[in-house]
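Table S2 (continued). Query chain:
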Amino acid sequence: MDVRVMGRGPAEPFLSARDLFETEHDLAWPVEVEVREDPDERTLTGHYDDSHHVLIMSEQAARGAMARELALHEYSHMLRYEQAHPSHTQSTEEALFLALTGRSVERRKLAHCYQIANHMKDIYADDITLDVAPADKLVSFLESSLATALADRPGEAPNGSTTSGSRRLTPAADPEITVVNAAFALALCERHELVGEDHRLYDLARAAASDAPGVRFDRFKHAFRSLADDPDPSDYRKALVDVTREYAT
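Corresponding output:
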C-alpha cells in the first residue's frame, strides 16, 4: 500500500494502520492523507477517477487515541470501493428517490436517511476492519457515542448529511436517529459477537428506544445485522430502500 501523509499532524497512526491492514488486505490505489486543522467531518474519504483515494482527518482526531482505528476504518471503505461492493457503488440519491418518491419528508429526516445509508456502508467496512484490529476501542467508541447522545438531546437536529465514508456515529442527538444509531451499534457488535448480553450498550439502546417509541429499534437492528456478506446489487438496493422507507415514513 502506498500511503502518503500531508499537512499538519502525525504520520504514525496512518502508517501503523497501513502495516496492520496489510497483514490481511491490500489496496491497489495509492492513498493521500491530509491532516487538517478543522475539516467539516472528523474523517472523510474520497475516491477519484485518476485512481487514488484521499483520506482527510482533523488534527485533533489524528492525535487522538482512536487515530489508528479511524484510519483502518477508512482503508476498509477504500477496499470496498475497489472491490466494487454494492454498498459502495450504489448511489444513495437513487435509493432515496426510489424510497421517498411521492412522500413528503421533513428535511431533518432526509438528513437522517443519508446517515442510515452510511451506517450500511460502515457495516461492510467494519467487517473488514474487525478482521485485522481488536474490537475493544471500537466498542468503547460506540458506547461513548451513544451515552453522549442520550445525555445531550437538542430540540432539533442540524440540517445536512453525513459524508459518505465518515466515521461519525452521532452527529446530532435527535432521539429518533439516536434509536437507529443504537440499532447500528448493537447490530455490528452482535454480527461479530463482540459483547455479551449484559453489556452497557444494551441498557443504552433500551433508553434510546424509550425516548422515541415510534421508531422500531428491533427492525433496524435486524436490518443492519442481517446484511448479506456479498449481496447482489439489486438485493442491496432493495435493503437500502426498505430501511430508508421504514425510517422516513
